[in-house]
Design goal:
Strand 15 and strand 16 form a beta hairpin. Helices cover 25% and strands 27% of the residues. The longest helix has 29 residues, at 300-328. It has nine helices and 17 strands.
Length: 357
């Protein structure tokens, strides 16, 4: 067994061309050592989508997040810039903020040290007696930010390549859909007690329309007609042509590792994963619609229907992800062969192997 935890034969089978390849060894999901490696080699080095621009639209707007276990806050400063700052106080490490809101400063609830929206320490009560304490030298660490399609991405690695050039081919594929014009209409929240890749695997193929979604998605988007766009970058795009033209093509994408979103011609969904451990993550599914829909009361029933359908479909996915997770932990579990309809999943797994194995 090699240091990465896979045997040579397992690795060869997983890295083979799609037509001959097998899925990842089950230890990639069930061994906490792999999750530790993922945090170090993926989540601490790659671009992670953490928020939408409309969530920090005005000066002082903030939203608290966690990336690779690092507590961060996305905030719009007085200068209009969107920043990703550590939300760990530089005094005794209490977390400055939780949730979302609007504030003039980021004030620690422990001893009321206060930071500006740019991360500079503005106030430290009752510190005059501390020798060589220079308030001006203290500030919150800041992380890299990129914005694409209305999404805010954060990278903890200051040496990482910019995101934009890496996903330029995907951007061309999605040209005309105006992702940046969509807004969060509703958010559904789910506790997800599985390894995060169980959901990513499920999201990146429509082969399973045959099973869990045979009464919902299969009549609209036949599994046999779906296909993945060729990609050699950190992304996959799955095309779901409609059975009837009035539905519109469904595009399903992943900007690796786990920026999952699905787009119809006039609305979409963003699956936001916030990892908690090797075997659990919080999932927020955001329904995205044009701003004009939110301003039109006549559109409310349509939004309700979209969100209701989304919840119904995801509960079908929950049942099958539960089943997969139980199976992966069985002593009988073993890598299986890919269907040709699982190219997007194979693309993701090749990217994963290059970083973790």
């Amino acid at each position: 067994m090699s240091s990465h935890g896979f045997g040579a034969a397992e690795l060869e089978a997983a890295r083979a061309p799609l037509e001959r390849a097998s899925t990842l060894p089950t230890r990639a999901y069930t061994d906490p050592a792999f999750f530790a490696r993922e945090r170090e080699r993926i989540f601490a080095r790659e671009w992670i989508a953490v928020a939408r621009l409309e969530q920090v639209a005005a000066v002082g707007d903030f939203v608290a997040k966690s990336v690779a276990g690092e507590p961060i806050v996305i905030v719009r400063g007085q200068d209009g810039r969107v920043r990703a700052l550590s939300r760990v106080c530089r005094h005794r490490s209490a977390l400055l903020v939780e949730g979302a809101g609007r504030a003039d400063t980021l004030e620690c609830p422990y001893h009321r040290w206060a930071y500006g929206l740019d991360g500079k320490l503005l106030a430290a009560p009752l510190m005059p007696g501390a020798r060589d304490f220079e308030r001006s030298e203290i500030r919150l660490p800041e992380y890299r930010v990129e914005i694409w399609g209305g999404f805010i991405y954060v990278n903890l690695d200051r040496e990482a390549a910019p995101l934009g050039p890496c996903i330029a081919p995907l951007a061309r594929e999605l040209a005309g859909l105006s992702l940046e014009d969509l807004r969060i209409a509703r958010t559904l929240e789910f506790d997800s007690p599985w390894n995060w890749k169980v959901l990513v695997d499920n999201f990146m193929e429509s082969y399973h329309h045959l099973g869990p979604h045979r009464a919902t998605l299969l009549p609209l988007f036949p599994a046999a007609d779906t296909y993945a766009v060729e990609s050699d970058g950190p992304w996959a795009l799955l095309v779901n042509p409609p059975q009837q033209g009035d539905v519109g093509t469904l595009l399903v994408a992943n900007i690796f590792p786990c920026h999952l979103f699905a787009l119809f011609p006039d609305h979409g969904f963003w699956y936001e994963l916030e990892l908690e451990s090797a075997f659990r993550f919080a999932l927020r599914i955001h329904a995205l619609v044009p701003q004009s829909w939110l301003e039109d009361p006549a559109k409310a029933p349509e939004i309700d229907a979209i969100v209701g359908g989304l919840e119904h479909v995801h509960r079908e996915d929950i049942a099958i992800c539960d089943s997969v997770w139980r199976g992966l932990r069985s002593q009988a579990a073993a890598p299986g062969r890919y269907s040709p309809l699982e190219r997007a999943l194979w693309q993701f797994n090749q990217w994963w192997l290059a970083r973790v194995a």
